[in-house]
Design a protein that fits this description.
Layout (H helix, E strand, L loop, with lengths): L13 E9 L2 E10 L2 E8 L6 E8 L2 E5 L2 E3 L4 E3 L2 E7 L5 E7 L2 E9 L13 H9 L1 H7 L4 E9 L2 E8 L5 E7 L3 H23 L9 E11 L3 E11 L6 E10 L8 H4 L13 H22 L6 E2 L2 E2 L10 E4 L3 E5 L16 E3 H4 L13
Antiparallel strand pairs: 1-2, 1-10, 2-3, 3-4, 4-5, 5-8, 6-7, 8-9, 9-10, 11-12, 12-13, 14-15, 15-16, 17-18, 19-20, 20-21
Length: 367
């Protein structure tokens, strides 16, 4: 009776987050309600990896299954299921069943205040505590392992990874003013926390899922820092996907830098970088000026060539950029089908040109 839920689009009403046990095994579960239908995920504290569930709510009871797709047979495996009933004070009790196995389930509302979190000072963890208690509980279980220390010029870098995720990052142990390094390191630690959660929550319909994270480059000077990383993931979408992103910092102040800070081509953008107003600002105000500059600097390349139409404004709305020895590399953002176009070897804006467009309020010092 639950198969229709596989393609359901959730009109989210509420998240219920619980901690408890299946038999003797500690788990954390999140249930998202949508009228009588519901879905969510849970993880065993030992593995921390999401297992998706879907189902229905009838009165005070929840009937949930792990809807696992068998692509070879073209069928859905629903042999793992929960039958849970309200037991007062927000608790749920019931059973977990998988084929001939059955265990008691006891769940209680997650007490966020009672969680002892080893990384509570991280900005990303504070955000989880406010907005995503499920992720907050999971990150409290992380084992962040120190790997090595590396000397890179005048910089000493300490490398870490989150156990069982493949997600790693470094912090700057020496080479910068201590206050600036602390600000940069806080943001690098946030990347570690954020992508570790993405790795643990990457689940495909067949129960698999892969998430790869790799630092592909870094640029370190007393004035500027860039960290470039690559993501590759298959979490049940139409096709596997990948992306390359970069973090950029003013190494003197420790502040993160946006493209508008180093290419100050228009008035101040909206402050909410994730809002629709910012996207509209980029499309209507910023991108036309950026494309005019790129056409001036690279007239032979800012054209439609083969499958790579660099004259299309949309691919420059959210470009990736980072500092290099000679300037900034700025790469367009093409859709998956044209992903190979997103790494041109010609789009490096030299520092001599960049000096004309720096935002004076940011006090950026170029090499």
């Amino acid at each position: 009776m639950l198969f229709f839920l596989a393609g359901h689009t959730w009109a989210k009403q509420a998240d219920l987050v619980f901690s408890g046990t299946i038999g003797k095994y500690p788990i954390v579960m999140k249930i998202t309600l949508d009228d009588s239908e519901c879905g969510g995920e849970y993880f065993y504290e030992s593995s921390k990896r999401d297992i998706e569930i879907v189902g229905v709510k009838k009165g005070g009871s929840y009937y949930l299954v792990n809807l696992r797709r068998n692509y070879d047979r073209g069928t859905d495996d629903t042999t793992e299921s929960f039958a849970l009933t309200a037991a007062g004070n927000g608790k749920l009790k019931g059973t977990w069943t998988q084929r001939n196995k059955k265990m008691d389930v006891v769940l209680r509302p997650l007490d966020v205040a009672a969680i002892v979190h080893p990384y509570a000072s991280y900005t990303a963890v504070k955000a989880q505590k406010r907005n995503d208690p499920y992720a907050y509980k999971r990150s409290s279980l992380y084992a962040i392992v120190r790997d090595s220390s590396v000397q890179k010029g005048s910089f000493k870098l300490d490398y870490f990874h989150v156990d069982k995720t493949g997600v790693h990052m470094f912090t700057i142990a020496a080479g910068l003013d201590a206050a600036a390094a602390a600000k940069i390191n806080e943001q690098l630690k946030d990347v570690l926390i954020t992508f570790a959660d993405a790795a643990y929550s990457c689940t495909a319909p067949d129960g698999s899922g892969s998430f790869d994270f790799d630092i592909t480059g870094c640029f370190l000077t007393p004035q500027l820092v860039s960290v470039i990383y690559h993501l590759g993931y298959d979490c049940g979408g139409v096709h596997p996907d990948d992306a390359e992103e970069a973090l950029n910092f003013n190494a003197v102040t420790g502040e993160a830098l946006e493209l508008e800070d180093v290419l100050h081509l228009a008035g101040p953008p909206p402050t909410d970088k994730n809002g629709s107003d910012f996207a509209a600002y980029r499309d209507d105000v910023y991108v036309p000026k950026l494309m005019a500059l790129l056409k001036k600097l690279f007239p032979k390349f800012m054209v439609s060539k083969d499958n790579c139409d660099y004259a299309t404004p949309e691919v420059w709305t959210f470009p990736k950029w980072y500092f290099t020895q000679k300037g900034i590399q700025i790469d367009p953002d093409f859709p998956h089908v044209s992903a190979e176009c997103g790494y041109p070897d010609w789009s490096e804006i030299p520092y001599s040109e960049l000096r004309k467009y720096l935002d004076p309020a940011k006090k950026i010092m170029l090499p």
